[in-house]
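Handout, section 3.2

Students often ask what a structure token actually looks like in practice. Rather than define it abstractly, here is a full record for Exopolyphosphatase. The first block is the sequence as you would receive it.
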Amino acid sequence: MAPRRPNGAGAFPIPVESPAPKPPDPAELYAALDLGTNSCRMLIAQPKGSGFHVVDSFSKSVQLGSGLERTGRLSRSSMARTVQALRICQQKLKRNKVNRMRLVTTEACRRAKNARDFIRQVRRETGMMLEVIQPEEEARLAVISCAPLVSTKTDQLLVVDIGGGSTELVWIDLSSVPARDRPRAIMRLHAGFHPPESPFPAAKVVDWISVPLGVATLRDQFSDVQDDAARFALMSWFFEENLIDFAPYKDEQVREGFQIVGTSGTVTTVAASHLGLKRYDRTKVDGLRMTSDQIDRVIRRYLDLGPQGRRRDPRIGEDRQALIMSGAAILQALLRCWPTDRLSVADRGLREGLLYAQMSADGVLEDGPF
């Protein structure tokens, strides 16, 4: 006998209506665009407490600096790729009705002979006015983007931003700042590395340097070396030679109270490899702490894999296998100089720094813990 059909079977469920999320007020939105040697990235966000909430974002590898090391110029194909990406960014800005923004470009446009022509082309084809920022501001923005990751136990801080065309290092002395105020003291550097007198204890910038070697430019300089391990060793020692003018370079740093914060695709990729992630997860990577020994093990594994093995690794991939080794060479040089038990991984950088700086200047961030 067939089972009886219960009463009401097949009836449509009563819909439960939930209100559509309220769109953000355009008057509260800020945008930050970072056009680097390798990537074009943008964030649109609104202030929230002592941080911000991301409303929209964009990230794409455009390889703007492709061939720059050889010719000193931006190529037509790289400019065309970049303009195409910037059109998408412009559409997002228009759709969100953003009025407060900073759209910056860095090392590739600082070095290229035809950078002005490229910036005019971008203005003509997208309506966006790119601003070429100088190395000191790039370093400063990288520093303040990492403020939430600074430990209250840190006396000496080294912030490292490994970019496509350059690497910025900033050494900061926090020993005279009360422990609980140290992250906030980093944020106050948005006014400059040597801000005016303030009633608050200040973070002291001991020294900073912008080395014109990033993952793309360092790779290009040693592209003629065929042996994978030899190329890696040469890149690492060459980068270390370029640190000779950095004041803390020769000073042995005790590990206690010393922290490095690394912000770059290199550092986040190494962290993902250390965790054994099958798919990249920002929530697991951002803020992760690693030791010099853990990082060294990951780099040794990259060398053991070789170019083909790195291409097949899901955390690296076809596009980044050569770039990860030049970035790892930079990272190894830094840890040879300053071994640490606390390298904090920052999945953040120039875009976040630009947003923090704009919001801090406007006084829209709450004064509290990050």
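Discussion prompt for tutorial groups: Residues 255 and 340 are 6 Å apart (CA to CA). How would you have guessed this from the sequence alone?
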